[in-house]
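Curious: why these numbers?
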Amino acid sequence: MKKRILFVCLGNICRSPGAEAVLTQMASQRQLVTPLEIDSAGIGGWHAGEPADSRMQKHALKRGYQMTGTARKFDPDRDFDQFDLIIGMDGENIRALRSMARNDADKKKIMRMTDFSKLYSYTSVPDPYYGGEDGFELVLDLLEDACDGLLDKLEQENLR
């Protein structure tokens, strides 16, 4: 059975499309038994229809990740029904997602990206938008770590 995962950040141009690209590639490399459907969205719709931030694309490409999607706004009526896991990048994203949840079943789908971290002790993936180049590299470090942990969790669940 396919597992559907949605990554969510504020505008859907840096962190969540980065997570989508990282998880897509890592899952492909691991050749998972359970197929994944991976997407991303933003709490706000300011960048809907736009590609990922060019700085994020540049840093992701240096690591071999292709960011091909376009930004879209999170749609509670569609996304809570369509996805099994809805993963926010920081506390603000988590609060916004919980406020849009229609019931307890929706709330149980919401997780924080850093809940899956193995190496780093960050409690959120910081937004690199207004910072320098190092911020994009840190985001990718955190996403790689958390996506590795997420895939471990999904593989363990599949063995049960």
